[in-house]
Amino acid sequence: MPINLNDSTPAAPSGYTNVTWQKDISTPPNMSAYAPLAGLFTRSLYTATQRAMTTAYQNTTGFPLIVGGYISSSGATECYVASSSGGLVGASTLVNSFTASQATYANPFLFLVPPNYYYEITATSAPVFGSWFEFQINSGSITINGDLSSSRALSTGSGGSTNVYQNTNTTALFVYAQIHLTTVNTSIATAYSDTTTTPTAVVYTVGATASPSGSWFLRGTTTRFQRQVARPMQ
Predict the structure, then answer these.
(1) Model confidence over 8-38: pLDDT tens digits?
(2) pTM of the model
(3) Shortest CA distance to 71 belongs to which of 95, 39, 49, 100?
(4) What are the CA-CA distances from residue 117 to residues 73, 100, 136, 172 (Å)?
């Protein structure tokens, strides 16, 4: 039976886009399809009047989101993600938590939100808005592994093979680690990643006047990564 090559029906699944079909004047006609070029991410920045603590927001973009930023607070900052707004804040939906000892410290947060899921950020002690952003992932889907702190460890030197982890997936890997440095003026935290078993290519570094540290980066398939600290952690 005949086939109608429609540009919009049926709709593409969540996280993907429909293509546009075209043909030339040949007999029979040659046909091809194309899609608009798009970057990996679309970034949105928000102000204190656009985003607030203890408020549930839903990801209605149809794409996965990376949500991040920081809040100044001397208490705990906690982030929750769930498929429903009911019961959103709870121990089973907690995805990111940080507690600072001084109000001048920045409490970093970073987490992933699947399409149609809800998220909420809470702070227990007089939070001051610092930064809030969302990166929309324009292609594909995500799988969240959860907290891996029990199976991951930091290295104390670069260029070694200790505590090196390889992305053995067939897709890119998004890695996030929240690190508490003990000595503000001297502690250095660095992330390395390349295709060797002793990675030396620096993809992230923080130190000097920065504590705590939240580092994140994307890793391609087969690459290895390692995090190194120059001082012990708290």
Answers:
(1) 888 887 767 788 888 888 888 888 887 765 6
(2) 0.66
(3) 100
(4) 26, 28, 13, 22
Is residue 94 located within the same domain as residue 170?
no
Whether residue 44 has pLDDT greater than 80: yes
Total number of domains constituting the chain: 2
Instruction: Name the domain boundary from 123, 141, 159.
Output: 141
135 and 174: one domain? Answer: no
Residues spanned by the domain of 189: 145-234
Q: Which residues contact 222 (CB under 8 A, 6 or more apart)?
A: 166, 167, 168, 195
Q: Are residues 129 and 163 in the same domain?
A: no
Query: CB neighbours (10 Å) of residue 16?
Result: 15
Considering only CA atoms, which of 193, 210, 61 is closest in space to residue 137?
61
CA distances from 2 to 10, 24, 26, 187, 231 (A): 16, 19, 19, 68, 69
Domain end marker among 126, 141, 156: 141
Residues 126, 86 contacting (CB under 8 angstroms): no
Q: How many C-beta atoms surround the C-beta of residue 110 within 10 A?
A: 21
| 151 compared with 2, residue with greater pLDDT | 151
Residues 120 and 155 in one domain: no
On whether both 110 and 50 belong to a single domain, the answer is yes
| Residues 82, 96 share a domain | yes
Of 181, 180, 179, 217, nearest to 199 by C-alpha is 217
Domain for residue 160, yes or no? yes
| pLDDT tens digits for range 206-232 | 655 544 445 555 555 555 545 444 443
93 DSSP assignment = G
